[in-house]
Specification:
2 helices, two-stranded parallel sheet, 19% strand, 53 residues, alpha+beta
């Protein structure tokens, strides 16, 4: 599944969501203003930087 992070009223995100729907691709959208994505990103990036992934 595709995970799309952004702000709902961003023109680029709107176009991307429309394109994904038109191609019937399953995706999960996470709005930064409603639900922060930082903890997931931070955990994975710190593992990458430490060479664990």
């Amino acid at each position: 599944m595709i995970r799309l992070f952004g702000i709902a009223n961003c023109d680029t995100i709107r176009k991307t969501r429309k394109w994904l729907r038109s191609h019937r691709l399953e995706f999960e959208f996470r709005d930064y203003k409603k639900r922060a994505a930082l903890p997931i990103w931070y955990d994975n990036s710190s593992n990458i930087l430490a060479g664990r992934i």
